[in-house]
Specification:
Length: 395
């Protein structure tokens, strides 16, 4: 795997695809700088070599040029986080961009305007990618969040840098971490798959089933499995058209000797609301009018034992409606068990938008081994797919 550490960037201009798609408030102020901070190590290494950085990214979902989505909004944050004033150019291709790059000196950083002001970015237009390729000597992809998209800046542009392309430190770490879980893992390996629906995670479960020893299925998706096993799930969320698939997964797990752990009990509520009345129920016997919204106390204890024995842990998806305080306990206790196992030497990888939000909310983000930055990209890797942005560097 070629990374920026295999190049010396002295007097070179690095064209770096970063993920600066940060959330903004109504006054266009950045509300979470995680993604900018994640891009920093790659930028610093290139500057320290004596090179310069041309940063390209998308921001939001503009339809054509729309100044609401200008990357100018984040220039001050990038400058502050990197520790030097970065430059900005109001286009991402063409004369202005080329001029700004030509004037860029060693030790400087230039941010290009939003790539998605051009439809050609998402359509993966080759001519557009060729224009982008004029803006650097070496192409670096450091954007895991968009690595599953065959866009001009994430994939197509790489073909113009035959042996002058590589992974940035962030993307390399993402690939290594997932590899550490799926291919070079210390056993026992435990995957926790939670979230609302089984339909979005079927391919993940099928792909990892013979790579892991335990699969903990939690959250809303557990009820489809409990129902197919004959449980009475009351008004809990269920996908009746996925019962066959749930049964297939249970059969497959049995044939591969992979243990599937379903919740034993739940916190059931009489409404999907913070003000609901609640009771602890056996998950196979939830009364009508009640829905399971969090893992129950017996489940939490059981899961903590499974996790304590694991040497490699993958967590994707909350095991309860953690956004509501009343139903956050299961997800929090699960997070704590993962933190404890990590302190005891296990490797833990947390990924997927909601579980990342959960570990941040509970203050566990720096107590697990790795927090992935890409939701969709991570799911596709877990599904066993080859991501076009990664393939483009490797080929
Ligand atoms: P996903 O995007 O599929 O990972 O689902 C994440 C969402 O699942 C979160 O917003 C949780 O609130 C929700 N969720 C977790 N457990 C349950 C449950 N038992 N019932 C309904 N929604 C749930």
């Amino acid at each position: 795997m070629t990374t920026i550490n295999d190049f010396n960037f002295e007097n070179k201009k690095a064209l770096i695809r970063v993920d600066l798609n940060v959330p903004l408030d109504e006054n266009f102020k950045v509300t979470d700088t995680t993604r900018i901070e994640a891009a920093k190590p790659t930028i610093i290494k290139i500057l320290e070599d004596g090179g310069s950085c041309v940063l390209m990214s998308h921001l939001g979902r503009p339809k054509g040029v729309d100044k609401k989505f200008t990357l100018k909004h984040i220039i001050d944050n990038v400058s502050e986080i990197i520790g030097l004033q970065v430059k900005f150019v109001t286009d991402c291709v063409g004369e202005d961009a080329e001029k700004a790059v030509a004037e860029l000196e060693a030790g400087e950083i230039l941010v290009l305007e939003n790539l998605r002001f051009y439809d050609q970015e998402k359509s993966g237009d080759v001519a557009f990618a060729e224009q982008l390729s004029k803006l650097g000597d070496i192409y670096v992809n450091d954007a895991f969040g968009t690595a599953h998209r065959a866009h001009a800046s994430t994939t197509v542009v790489a073909q113009f840098f035959t042996d002058k392309k590589c992974f940035g430190l962030l993307l390399a770490k993402e690939i290594e971490s997932l590899n550490a879980v799926l291919n070079n893992s210390q056993k026992p390996v435990t995957a926790i798959i939670g979230g609302a629906k089984v339909s979005s995670k079927i391919d993940v479960i099928k792909n990892i089933i013979d790579k892991v020893d335990n699969i903990i299925i939690g959250g809303g998706m557990a009820f489809t499995f409990v129902k197919v096993k004959g449980g009475k799930i009351g008004d809990s969320i269920v996908e009746n058209d996925k019962l066959d698939i749930a049964q297939d997964i249970l059969n497959l797990a049995k044939s591969k000797n992979t243990r599937i752990h379903l919740p034993i009990d739940v916190i059931a509520a009489d409404a999907f609301s913070e003000d609901a009345n609640t009771q602890v129920c056996d998950i196979y016997n939830i009364p009508d009018g009640w829905q399971g919204l969090d893992a129950g106390p017996k489940t939490n204890v059981g899961l903590s034992f499974v996790i304590a024995e694991s040497k490699t842990i993958l967590w994707n998806g909350p095991i309860g409606v953690f956004e509501m305080e009343k139903f956050a306990k299961g997800t929090k206790e699960l997070g704590r068990a993962i933190v404890d196992a990590t302190a005891d030497g296990a490797f833990s990888l947390v990924g997927g938008g909601d579980s990342v939000a959960a570990v941040k909310q509970f203050g566990f983000a720096d107590k697990v081994s790795y927090v992935s930055t890409g939701g969709g990209a991570m799911l596709e890797m877990l599904e066993g797919k080859t991501l076009p942005g990664i393939e483009a560097i490797l080929s």
